[in-house]
Design goal:
It holds the Pfam family Glutaredoxin. This is NrdH-redoxin. By secondary structure, this protein is α+β, with helices and mostly antiparallel strands. Helix content is 44%, strand content 20%.
Length: 81
Amino acid sequence: MLTMYSTSWCGYCHRLRSQLDREGIAYEVIDIERDPASADYVMSVNGGNQTVPTMRFDDGTAMTNPSITQVKQHLAALETA
């Protein structure tokens, strides 16, 4: 499952969530302010920064603040791999 690391106040996160919903893409949201382990993960893939939205894909790869187009392209690439 696609995972979005987010915060409640992140405007970019809200925008990407609405785009994922519109595209019918399933995902789980984890608030890094409520889950210290997820905040550690986000920092591990973002050079020590808590940058959100950070997306984690089923193959273990991550994208930081991606566009919906980038998410869709990566998901399509995973399906054909």
